[in-house]
Amino acid sequence: MQHFLNLTDLTNPQPTAVALGMFDGVHIGHQALLKTMATEARAKGLRTAALTFFPHPRAILLKRFGRQYLTTIEERAELIGDCDIDLIITTPFNDDTRNTRAAEYVQLMQKHLGMVEIWSGDFGFGYQREGTPEFLRTLQSQTPFKVIEFGTKLSISNESVSSSRIRQSLDEGNAADAALCLGRNYSLSGEVIKGDQRGRTIGFPTANLDVWEEKVIPANGVYATWVYLPDGTRYPSATNVGVRPTVDGQSMRIEAHLLDFSGDLYGQHLTLEFVDHIRGEKRFSGLEELKNQIKLDVTDIRAVLKMAA
Questions:
Q1: I need a surface site. Which of 178, 200, 211, 256 has the fewest CB within 10 A?
Q2: CA atoms within a 13 Å half-sphere pointing along the CA-CB vector of 118
Q3: Contacts for 276-279: CB closer than 8 Å, 24+ residues apart
Q4: Please, which residues bridge with residue 296 across strands?
Protein backbone atom coordinates (compact mmCIF):
# COMPACT_ATOMS: atom_id res chain seq x y z
CA MET A 1 0.00 0.00 0.00
CA GLN A 2 1.20 3.49 -0.89
CA HIS A 3 -0.30 6.69 0.48
CA PHE A 4 -0.23 9.94 -1.48
CA LEU A 5 -1.42 13.34 -0.31
CA ASN A 6 -2.26 14.68 -3.74
CA LEU A 7 -3.51 13.08 -6.95
CA THR A 8 -0.98 15.02 -9.02
CA ASP A 9 1.87 13.31 -7.13
CA LEU A 10 1.19 10.10 -9.08
CA THR A 11 3.21 9.84 -12.29
CA ASN A 12 2.86 6.17 -13.26
CA PRO A 13 -0.59 5.68 -14.82
CA GLN A 14 -1.73 2.11 -15.44
CA PRO A 15 -5.17 0.49 -15.69
CA THR A 16 -6.72 1.18 -12.28
CA ALA A 17 -10.04 0.65 -10.53
CA VAL A 18 -10.79 3.62 -8.27
CA ALA A 19 -13.15 3.81 -5.29
CA LEU A 20 -14.40 7.26 -4.31
CA GLY A 21 -15.60 8.26 -0.86
CA MET A 22 -14.76 9.84 2.47
CA PHE A 23 -14.38 6.39 4.09
CA ASP A 24 -14.30 7.94 7.57
CA GLY A 25 -13.98 5.10 10.03
CA VAL A 26 -13.62 2.55 7.20
CA HIS A 27 -16.64 0.71 8.63
CA ILE A 28 -17.97 -2.66 7.43
CA GLY A 29 -19.91 -1.00 4.60
CA HIS A 30 -16.76 0.70 3.30
CA GLN A 31 -14.85 -2.55 3.71
CA ALA A 32 -17.45 -4.43 1.64
CA LEU A 33 -17.12 -1.95 -1.24
CA LEU A 34 -13.32 -1.88 -1.15
CA LYS A 35 -12.86 -5.64 -0.84
CA THR A 36 -15.37 -6.35 -3.61
CA MET A 37 -13.63 -3.88 -5.91
CA ALA A 38 -10.23 -5.36 -5.06
CA THR A 39 -11.39 -8.92 -5.79
CA GLU A 40 -12.93 -8.01 -9.13
CA ALA A 41 -10.03 -5.75 -10.09
CA ARG A 42 -7.48 -8.48 -9.41
CA ALA A 43 -9.41 -10.86 -11.66
CA LYS A 44 -9.16 -8.28 -14.46
CA GLY A 45 -5.50 -7.48 -13.85
CA LEU A 46 -6.24 -3.97 -12.61
CA ARG A 47 -4.48 -1.93 -9.97
CA THR A 48 -6.67 -0.62 -7.12
CA ALA A 49 -6.90 2.87 -5.65
CA ALA A 50 -9.07 4.80 -3.21
CA LEU A 51 -9.55 8.54 -3.60
CA THR A 52 -10.66 10.41 -0.51
CA PHE A 53 -10.41 13.91 0.96
CA PHE A 54 -9.21 15.85 3.98
CA PRO A 55 -10.56 17.87 5.61
CA HIS A 56 -14.12 16.64 5.36
CA PRO A 57 -16.08 18.82 2.89
CA ARG A 58 -18.48 19.85 5.67
CA ALA A 59 -15.57 21.48 7.51
CA ILE A 60 -15.10 23.83 4.55
CA LEU A 61 -18.68 24.15 3.36
CA LEU A 62 -20.40 24.37 6.76
CA LYS A 63 -17.48 25.70 8.81
CA ARG A 64 -17.90 22.70 11.10
CA PHE A 65 -14.80 21.96 13.14
CA GLY A 66 -13.89 20.12 16.31
CA ARG A 67 -14.13 16.41 17.09
CA GLN A 68 -15.75 14.91 14.01
CA TYR A 69 -13.42 12.23 12.59
CA LEU A 70 -13.48 8.51 13.40
CA THR A 71 -9.96 8.02 12.05
CA THR A 72 -6.87 10.10 11.52
CA ILE A 73 -5.58 10.47 7.96
CA GLU A 74 -2.93 7.82 8.63
CA GLU A 75 -5.34 5.40 10.33
CA ARG A 76 -7.81 5.70 7.46
CA ALA A 77 -5.09 5.02 4.89
CA GLU A 78 -3.87 1.95 6.78
CA LEU A 79 -7.38 0.54 7.15
CA ILE A 80 -8.11 1.09 3.46
CA GLY A 81 -4.84 -0.61 2.61
CA ASP A 82 -5.91 -3.60 4.71
CA CYS A 83 -8.75 -4.07 2.18
CA ASP A 84 -6.19 -4.93 -0.52
CA ILE A 85 -6.05 -1.43 -1.99
CA ASP A 86 -2.74 -0.53 -3.66
CA LEU A 87 -2.94 3.26 -3.63
CA ILE A 88 -4.66 5.66 -1.24
CA ILE A 89 -4.88 9.30 -2.32
CA THR A 90 -5.92 11.80 0.34
CA THR A 91 -6.74 14.87 -1.71
CA PRO A 92 -6.80 18.25 0.07
CA PHE A 93 -10.31 19.68 0.18
CA ASN A 94 -10.29 23.48 -0.09
CA ASP A 95 -12.00 26.23 -2.04
CA ASP A 96 -10.20 25.22 -5.24
CA THR A 97 -11.26 21.61 -4.78
CA ARG A 98 -14.89 22.45 -4.14
CA ASN A 99 -15.07 24.39 -7.40
CA THR A 100 -13.44 21.71 -9.55
CA ARG A 101 -15.94 20.17 -11.95
CA ALA A 102 -16.51 16.42 -11.82
CA ALA A 103 -15.46 16.04 -15.46
CA GLU A 104 -12.09 17.59 -14.64
CA TYR A 105 -11.65 15.13 -11.76
CA VAL A 106 -12.26 12.29 -14.17
CA GLN A 107 -9.61 13.65 -16.52
CA LEU A 108 -7.15 13.98 -13.63
CA MET A 109 -7.79 10.40 -12.50
CA GLN A 110 -7.27 9.13 -16.02
CA LYS A 111 -4.09 11.17 -16.46
CA HIS A 112 -2.43 10.38 -13.12
CA LEU A 113 -3.89 6.98 -12.28
CA GLY A 114 -4.91 5.43 -15.57
CA MET A 115 -8.43 5.08 -14.18
CA VAL A 116 -10.64 2.66 -16.15
CA GLU A 117 -13.28 1.98 -13.49
CA ILE A 118 -14.96 4.20 -10.90
CA TRP A 119 -16.59 2.48 -7.95
CA SER A 120 -18.96 4.54 -5.88
CA GLY A 121 -21.36 4.07 -3.02
CA ASP A 122 -23.53 6.95 -1.78
CA PHE A 123 -21.14 9.69 -2.80
CA GLY A 124 -20.89 12.71 -5.08
CA PHE A 125 -17.74 14.68 -5.84
CA GLY A 126 -16.74 17.83 -7.65
CA TYR A 127 -18.60 21.13 -7.90
CA GLN A 128 -21.88 20.92 -5.96
CA ARG A 129 -21.40 17.14 -5.70
CA GLU A 130 -22.28 16.78 -9.37
CA GLY A 131 -20.08 13.71 -9.74
CA THR A 132 -22.82 11.19 -9.07
CA PRO A 133 -22.90 7.79 -10.84
CA GLU A 134 -25.67 9.11 -13.10
CA PHE A 135 -23.60 12.13 -14.15
CA LEU A 136 -20.45 10.06 -14.64
CA ARG A 137 -22.27 7.81 -17.09
CA THR A 138 -22.87 10.83 -19.32
CA LEU A 139 -19.08 11.22 -19.65
CA GLN A 140 -18.40 7.66 -20.72
CA SER A 141 -18.77 8.32 -24.44
CA GLN A 142 -16.22 11.15 -24.25
CA THR A 143 -13.58 9.51 -22.04
CA PRO A 144 -14.26 5.75 -21.87
CA PHE A 145 -14.35 4.25 -18.40
CA LYS A 146 -16.77 2.08 -16.47
CA VAL A 147 -19.00 3.31 -13.64
CA ILE A 148 -19.81 0.70 -11.01
CA GLU A 149 -22.35 1.71 -8.39
CA PHE A 150 -21.97 -0.44 -5.29
CA GLY A 151 -25.53 -0.64 -4.02
CA THR A 152 -25.11 -3.05 -1.11
CA LYS A 153 -26.33 -1.41 2.10
CA LEU A 154 -25.37 -3.17 5.32
CA SER A 155 -27.65 -3.00 8.33
CA ILE A 156 -27.37 -4.01 11.98
CA SER A 157 -30.50 -4.21 14.13
CA ASN A 158 -32.55 -2.89 11.19
CA GLU A 159 -30.49 0.31 11.00
CA SER A 160 -28.05 1.14 8.21
CA VAL A 161 -24.37 1.15 8.98
CA SER A 162 -22.89 4.60 8.44
CA SER A 163 -20.23 6.92 9.82
CA SER A 164 -23.02 9.13 11.19
CA ARG A 165 -24.49 6.20 13.12
CA ILE A 166 -21.08 5.38 14.60
CA ARG A 167 -20.57 8.97 15.72
CA GLN A 168 -24.00 8.98 17.35
CA SER A 169 -23.29 5.67 19.09
CA LEU A 170 -20.04 7.04 20.48
CA ASP A 171 -21.77 10.26 21.55
CA GLU A 172 -24.16 8.03 23.52
CA GLY A 173 -21.36 5.92 24.98
CA ASN A 174 -22.47 2.87 23.01
CA ALA A 175 -19.02 1.49 22.25
CA ALA A 176 -20.46 -1.96 21.55
CA ASP A 177 -22.65 -0.72 18.67
CA ALA A 178 -19.76 1.30 17.26
CA ALA A 179 -17.63 -1.88 17.28
CA LEU A 180 -20.30 -3.84 15.41
CA CYS A 181 -20.46 -1.19 12.70
CA LEU A 182 -16.70 -0.81 12.44
CA GLY A 183 -15.93 -4.51 12.52
CA ARG A 184 -13.40 -3.73 15.27
CA ASN A 185 -13.25 -1.81 18.54
CA TYR A 186 -13.21 1.97 18.28
CA SER A 187 -9.77 3.26 19.21
CA LEU A 188 -7.89 6.37 20.25
CA SER A 189 -4.13 6.78 20.06
CA GLY A 190 -1.82 9.32 21.58
CA GLU A 191 1.12 10.11 23.78
CA VAL A 192 0.95 9.60 27.54
CA ILE A 193 1.35 12.99 29.18
CA LYS A 194 1.71 13.98 32.80
CA GLY A 195 -1.42 14.83 34.75
CA ASP A 196 -1.78 15.66 38.42
CA GLN A 197 -0.90 12.05 39.39
CA ARG A 198 -3.87 11.94 41.75
CA GLY A 199 -4.68 8.36 40.75
CA ARG A 200 -1.47 7.18 42.37
CA THR A 201 -2.63 8.48 45.74
CA ILE A 202 -5.64 6.14 45.76
CA GLY A 203 -3.88 3.13 44.28
CA PHE A 204 -5.06 3.49 40.69
CA PRO A 205 -2.35 5.19 38.60
CA THR A 206 -3.54 6.18 35.14
CA ALA A 207 -2.07 6.93 31.75
CA ASN A 208 -3.36 10.32 30.63
CA LEU A 209 -3.69 10.14 26.84
CA ASP A 210 -3.21 13.16 24.59
CA VAL A 211 -5.29 12.42 21.47
CA TRP A 212 -5.79 14.29 18.20
CA GLU A 213 -8.06 17.27 18.82
CA GLU A 214 -10.36 16.47 15.88
CA LYS A 215 -11.01 12.81 16.64
CA VAL A 216 -14.34 11.75 18.16
CA ILE A 217 -14.18 10.85 21.86
CA PRO A 218 -16.83 8.57 23.36
CA ALA A 219 -19.31 10.03 25.85
CA ASN A 220 -18.11 10.71 29.38
CA GLY A 221 -18.03 7.65 31.58
CA VAL A 222 -16.09 4.53 32.54
CA TYR A 223 -15.24 1.94 29.88
CA ALA A 224 -13.80 -1.53 29.63
CA THR A 225 -10.83 -1.04 27.32
CA TRP A 226 -7.69 -2.64 25.95
CA VAL A 227 -4.42 -0.72 25.92
CA TYR A 228 -1.74 -1.55 23.36
CA LEU A 229 1.85 -0.58 24.13
CA PRO A 230 4.24 0.38 21.31
CA ASP A 231 5.62 -3.18 21.20
CA GLY A 232 2.10 -4.57 20.64
CA THR A 233 1.62 -5.91 24.16
CA ARG A 234 -2.03 -5.69 25.21
CA TYR A 235 -3.30 -4.96 28.72
CA PRO A 236 -6.84 -4.91 30.08
CA SER A 237 -7.69 -1.48 31.38
CA ALA A 238 -10.30 0.66 33.08
CA THR A 239 -10.67 3.99 31.29
CA ASN A 240 -12.40 7.12 32.48
CA VAL A 241 -13.45 9.72 29.92
CA GLY A 242 -14.62 13.02 31.32
CA VAL A 243 -14.01 15.99 33.57
CA ARG A 244 -13.49 14.10 36.87
CA PRO A 245 -16.25 15.82 38.87
CA THR A 246 -14.99 14.45 42.19
CA VAL A 247 -11.55 16.01 41.58
CA ASP A 248 -12.06 19.31 39.76
CA GLY A 249 -14.88 18.97 37.23
CA GLN A 250 -13.10 21.16 34.72
CA SER A 251 -10.36 19.51 32.67
CA MET A 252 -11.35 16.92 30.06
CA ARG A 253 -9.24 13.78 30.44
CA ILE A 254 -8.89 10.32 28.91
CA GLU A 255 -7.28 8.28 31.66
CA ALA A 256 -6.57 4.56 31.44
CA HIS A 257 -5.69 2.43 34.44
CA LEU A 258 -3.83 -0.61 33.13
CA LEU A 259 -4.68 -3.72 35.11
CA ASP A 260 -1.80 -5.99 36.11
CA PHE A 261 0.80 -3.48 34.94
CA SER A 262 3.52 -1.52 36.68
CA GLY A 263 5.97 0.82 35.04
CA ASP A 264 6.50 4.28 33.60
CA LEU A 265 4.46 5.07 30.46
CA TYR A 266 5.18 8.78 30.15
CA GLY A 267 6.07 9.80 26.63
CA GLN A 268 5.00 6.49 25.10
CA HIS A 269 2.46 6.29 22.27
CA LEU A 270 -0.45 4.06 23.27
CA THR A 271 -3.57 2.82 21.50
CA LEU A 272 -6.77 2.53 23.50
CA GLU A 273 -9.61 0.29 22.31
CA PHE A 274 -13.12 0.78 23.71
CA VAL A 275 -14.95 -2.51 24.32
CA ASP A 276 -17.98 -1.56 26.42
CA HIS A 277 -19.48 1.19 28.54
CA ILE A 278 -19.58 0.35 32.26
CA ARG A 279 -21.22 3.41 33.82
CA GLY A 280 -21.71 7.13 33.42
CA GLU A 281 -19.55 9.78 35.02
CA LYS A 282 -20.54 10.55 38.59
CA ARG A 283 -19.56 12.90 41.36
CA PHE A 284 -18.63 11.16 44.62
CA SER A 285 -18.49 12.54 48.14
CA GLY A 286 -14.72 12.19 48.26
CA LEU A 287 -11.70 10.22 47.15
CA GLU A 288 -12.47 7.27 49.43
CA GLU A 289 -15.90 6.73 47.89
CA LEU A 290 -14.35 7.14 44.45
CA LYS A 291 -11.71 4.54 45.31
CA ASN A 292 -14.36 2.04 46.39
CA GLN A 293 -16.32 2.58 43.19
CA ILE A 294 -13.22 2.08 41.05
CA LYS A 295 -12.68 -1.29 42.76
CA LEU A 296 -16.19 -2.31 41.72
CA ASP A 297 -15.60 -0.97 38.20
CA VAL A 298 -12.41 -3.02 37.87
CA THR A 299 -14.28 -6.19 38.84
CA ASP A 300 -16.95 -5.50 36.21
CA ILE A 301 -14.33 -4.62 33.60
CA ARG A 302 -12.36 -7.82 34.15
CA ALA A 303 -15.54 -9.80 33.57
CA VAL A 304 -16.39 -7.89 30.38
CA LEU A 305 -12.90 -8.22 28.94
CA LYS A 306 -12.70 -11.90 29.82
CA MET A 307 -15.78 -12.44 27.67
CA ALA A 308 -14.35 -10.26 24.88
CA ALA A 309 -10.84 -11.77 24.84
A1: 200
A2: 31
A3: 276/175, 276/176, 276/223, 276/224, 276/304, 276/308, 277/173, 277/174, 277/175, 277/176, 277/218, 277/219, 277/221, 277/222, 277/223, 278/221, 278/222, 278/223, 278/224, 278/238, 278/304, 279/221, 279/222
A4: none
Task: Give the start-end residues of each E strand in the chain.
Answer: 2-4, 16-20, 47-54, 87-92, 115-120, 146-149, 155-156, 159-160, 186-193, 207-211, 221-228, 234-242, 253-258, 269-279
From the centroid of its chain, how far is CA 4? 18
Closest Cα to residue 265, out of 201, 192, 202?
A: 192
At 228, the amino acid letter reads Y
Query: Amino acid identity, residue 111?
Result: K
Inter-axis angle of helices 175-182 and 163-171, nearest 10: 160
State pTM to two decimals. 0.91
Reported in sequence order, the residue ranges of 129-174 that DSSP labels E, i.e. its strands, are 146-149, 155-156, 159-160
Q: Is-contact 33 51, C-beta < 8 A?
A: no
Average pLDDT along the chain = 89
Residue 167's identity, in one-letter code, is R
Cα atoms in the 13 Å half-sphere on the side-chain side of 12: 6
In one letter, which amino acid is 219?
Answer: A
* More confident: 134 or 79: 79
